[in-house]
């Protein structure tokens, strides 16, 4: 069962790839950003040819259609934003269409409206492709990776030509505008249920959304406050992807949770450590089937075999920075620690719509691998339900691993960049009592509007995602919130290779009970 990944390609190291403008940028947030269970590929229906620009009438017609179809398709478009507020923004955006627009300009305008719903699976994602193309053409960008804490903007990596801007320094203003205002402006482009979730995404994408706001720039004037309290203004040049790549190698080392991507070992204090990595086949980037679970199953089985051979009784499962993926993968791991059958949800309701039915049918007809048995379950459901009706969707429980299970104590380690299926795994572990959850609260939702589908607008060919379902975490908590750890471990402002969070988690695990 595919889960929407809040950030399928975007984790710490990939943030640099986005800043450098690689094609990873076009893939990122093929997700948002949030929640659970979105079927990934767009429908295979024919799309109009891309034009250099679109007339006002074309853009107006597609904006009107976008809003009408979202109303009909989304499970509850106004769950977090009053209809009057969305109507007001819609009219404002409509009034601003007075001349021809490029596809990128139309996408940004449409995304402003969709993002106003504050639902991670309601989104227009085209800006990633435009950004990747801009960076590939050596377009210049804001030369900092950022860290956002308590609404304040900090330098996470200085990739500029100004050496005296240490990481951790706070950015107070950009071009004379307070940083808080820039965060408000860039958040307006992000589909996210909460400000915290939007900020966690901006930690990857702030330079991109700043570019959406101000366009190409040769440089910026920034006001910075260092850790010792000194505040000063300085000019920094915007940098190309090649310039950023060159300076990145000279930066102080940062915590890297991608090399290796998957990891299983015994920590110095005898605690087992498992980092499963993304819940999809990472070899897909080289042409392999993204949903082939074979290699992942081998890795997980070997890991638990090693823990058994080494007589490990305490285990940390590291879900930090996890972009999510598919429960076909995560169930391989969770079944090793489950002591009874489980589901990742307590309630899964779908609002039937014509676009959801069409998208599902297109997937079955044109991409059998992506469709799998779940799309056929949807098709059976749709066969007897009319558009506008809300129906319950059911799945069988997942059984514990038939070959045995890990008998020790389990701790799941999470952070603000645990997304999508990673959040569902943490919620399942917590709600079923399979283990304790440590770390910082996820910004992505454990109960969410998800199961994303897509439709394509006829004039511009722009693709729009919408959440057709409301999925409630296993314990039945309907509040739109992330997973709150049982034991909080704050993340440092700047995360370094010594990995203070893991050190603290290992201390907690080592002093905990040996048996669950």
Automatic annotation (TrEMBL):
Pfam families, alphabetized: Peptidase_S41 (PF03572)
Domain of life: Bacteria
BP GO terms, sorted: proteolysis
InterPro entries: ClpP/crotonase-like_dom_sf, Tail-specific_protease
Domain Tail specific protease span(s) in chain numbering: 299-488
One Gene Ontology molecular-function label: endopeptidase activity
Classification via PANTHER family: CARBOXYL-TERMINAL-PROCESSING PEPTIDASE 3, CHLOROPLASTIC (PTHR32060:SF22), TAIL-SPECIFIC PROTEASE (PTHR32060)
Protein name as catalogued: Peptidase S41-like protein
Record organism: Nitrospirillum amazonense
């Amino acid at each position: 069962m595919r889960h929407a990944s809040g950030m399928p390609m975007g984790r710490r190291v990939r943030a640099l790839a986005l800043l450098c403008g690689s094609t990873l940028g076009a893939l990122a947030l093929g997700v948002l950003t949030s929640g659970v269970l979105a079927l990934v590929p767009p429908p295979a229906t024919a799309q109009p040819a891309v034009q250099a620009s679109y007339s006002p009438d074309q853009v107006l017609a597609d904006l009107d259609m976008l809003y009408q179809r979202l109303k009909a398709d989304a499970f509850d478009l106004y769950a977090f934003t009053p209809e009057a507020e969305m109507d007001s923004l819609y009219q404002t955006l409509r009034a601003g269409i007075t001349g021809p627009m490029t596809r990128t300009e139309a996408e940004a305008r449409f995304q402003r409206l969709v993002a106003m719903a504050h639902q991670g699976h309601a989104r227009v994602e085209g800006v990633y492709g435009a950004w990747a193309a801009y960076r590939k053409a050596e377009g210049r960008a804001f030369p900092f990776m950022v860290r956002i804490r308590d609404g304040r903007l900090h330098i996470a990596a200085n990739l500029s030509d100004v050496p005296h801007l240490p990481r951790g320094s706070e950015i107070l203003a950009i071009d004379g505008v307070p940083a808080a205002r820039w965060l408000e402006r860039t958040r307006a482009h992000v589909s996210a249920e909460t400000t915290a979730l939007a900020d966690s995404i901006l930690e990857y994408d702030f330079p991109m959304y700043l570019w959406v706001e101000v366009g190409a720039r040769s440089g910026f004037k920034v006001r910075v406050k260092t850790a010792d309290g000194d505040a000063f203004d300085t000019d920094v040049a915007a940098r190309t992807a090649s310039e950023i790549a060159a300076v990145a190698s000279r930066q102080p080392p940062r915590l890297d949770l991608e090399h290796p991507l998957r990891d299983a070992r015994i920590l110095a204090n005898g605690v087992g450590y498992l980092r499963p990595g993304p819940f999809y086949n990472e070899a897909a980037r080289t042409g392999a089937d993204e949903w082939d679970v074979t290699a992942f199953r081998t890795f997980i089985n070997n890991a638990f075999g090693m823990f058994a051979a080494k007589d490990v009784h305490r285990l940390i499962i590291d879900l930090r920075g996890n972009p999510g993926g598919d429960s076909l993968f995560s169930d391989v791991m969770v079944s090793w620690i489950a002591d009874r059958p489980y589901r990742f949800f307590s309630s899964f309701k779908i609002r039937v719509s014509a676009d959801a039915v069409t998208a599902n049918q297109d997937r079955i007809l044109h991409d059998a691998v992506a469709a799998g048995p779940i799309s056929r379950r949807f098709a059976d459901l749709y066969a007897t339900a009319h558009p506008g009706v809300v129906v319950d969707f059911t799945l069988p429980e997942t059984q514990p691993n038939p070959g045995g299970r890990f008998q020790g104590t389990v701790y799941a380690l999470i952070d603000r960049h645990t997304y999508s299926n990673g959040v569902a795994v943490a919620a399942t572990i917590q709600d079923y009592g399979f283990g304790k959850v440590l770390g910082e609260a996820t910004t992505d939702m454990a109960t969410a509007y998800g199961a994303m589908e897509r439709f394509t607008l006829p004039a511009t060919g722009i693709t729009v995602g919408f959440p057709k379902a409301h999925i409630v975490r296993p314990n039945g908590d309907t509040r739109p919130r992330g997973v709150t750890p049982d034991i909080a471990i704050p993340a440092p402002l700047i995360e370094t290779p010594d990995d203070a969070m893991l050190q603290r988690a290992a201390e907690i695990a080592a002093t905990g009970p040996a048996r669950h």
